[in-house]
Design brief:
CATH class of the largest domain: Mainly Alpha
CATH architecture of the largest domain: Orthogonal Bundle
Helix content: 40-55%
Number of domains: 5
Radius of gyration: 28 Å
CATH superfamily of the largest domain: DNAb Helicase, Chain A
Distance between the termini: 54 Å
Shape: globular
Length: 580
Amino acid sequence: MALRLRISRSFISELVTRVDLVDLIGSYLTLKKAGKNYLALCPFHSEKTASFTISPDKQMYYCFGCGAHGNAVGFLMNYAKLEFVEAVQQLAAHQGIAVVYEEGGDFVEQPRYDELYAILERVNRHYQQQLRGSSRAIAYLKQRGLTGQIAEEFGVGYAPPGWNNLTTLLNTQEQLVHGIQAGLIKEDHGRYYDRFRDRILFPIHDLHGRVIAFGGRALSAENQPKYLNSPETPLFKKGQELYGLHRVRQLQAQTRIIIVEGYLDVVALAQYDIRNVVATLGTATTKVNLTRLFRHATEITFCFDGDEAGRKAAWKALEAVLPLLQSGQQVSFLLLPEGQDPDTLVRAEGTQGFNARLQTAKPLSDFLFETLQRQVNMSSLEGQTHLVEKLARPLLQKMTPGLYKDALQNRLAELTPLVSLADLEKSARLKPGRMTSRQTRSLRDYSPAYQAIVYLLDKPYLSRLVQPAREKFGHPSQADLNLLVEVLELIEEKPHLTPGALLEHWRGTEQESLINQLGNQEVLLNESEIEKEFEGIIQHFQQELKEQRIDFLIHKTDLSAEEKQELQELTSPTTGGTRL
């Protein structure tokens, strides 16, 4: 069977460069020319005055109302609710070109997994048939309050006791191999046996509704572990999938999605007509999970058990979601009474009772600061210092600049006056980059390196002033300066790409949200002013690097002849000046 391959990153960059974003978005929305840009009513939030802007120069869009932003791929993902691969394929079809896949740098054909999908669907039907014939399994579902109708709707099945039920069903060598590859059959020293035995089974689907794995709940206490999922396979990656998401995707106009911890919770809530629910699959909530969910709703509520394990899961979810939050998105947390889970609670309180509890979910800001305050003594200066320096600041630093981050910092300032010290430090870091009154306040909030990136993405030709970037800057330890060098190198390598295409380089990385914000930052300077600002920032960094090198050489013992010559040149008033 073919190995899993990915779409060539170079192909994606070239594809985005080919696409005219104005034409693409214009095929979905009514556009109006406004200066050098185009305006439209935003498709991602309700508005009466157009604030959705498309830049033909940058090949990027940005909404000043809700903060939605991106390039051609991002627009199709968010507007048409497509996954990344689907959006790329649709763009390629629109341009009349074939998608290029890669493995080890060589371009190859797209792999196919038809045999695995077919085996999984066949086994799924087999498990459902086994459930209908097992009074013991049916009794368990009834005891859990599940009806036959909801079990059929979710394709619930049953793997009976026995080691060789599937190996008998899949009775050819080829089918056996596919069963192993799909995670249904295990092999141990040439012996083959069923992975799932005496378990209620819940089929796990991809976004297209295809079965890709199973989750099993043991019927007897002796059968451990209690919950068992399929292993990772070419079709199933636990950290990327959410149980029930393919169903939520089909719902109309959902603003909120609820995340729970188990597939039984999803099925139980659906029986009470609460269907905007998904479950994680044995892992903490991941960035991939959250990015997918925000594509389908603007609010996410984490609904976990109120015990220690549930609180830990909620905190991990908060840490995962903080760097992703954008304007218009909301996150809340509902921790249930200890000993209760969504399944038991909805059976006890019904739809109305559970929905009433959802209305009491804590906003992220409340959950964040209440959790942090419980860890310190807020009546002491030491406790407040620990809260700011060790607990709150590392979390807030991971967030991208914006109104929500500012609001959280203001909330922290209400808790302790020590935050004003951090504000002073922030102001000090911004001094090297001279600002003019014509620049926007939000641009002024960025560090000098990030400001330089804003200028580069607005005027990519500026990179010629500092080529080669790696030779000029080396490998800086500061995250912002290192990102600046990455941008410079990428423009050096691919000078013909539009800013919108350049941004594809960071898709799926920790810097993706930040680099998108920088790319959509409005610059209220003319071309000569931008060049002057950019040169000033670069000169500042080069002067810093020069001083660091001088300090290193002065404190080094036993300088070589070359190093002595270098130190003399660096400290000479005639040759040590900073040059671009």
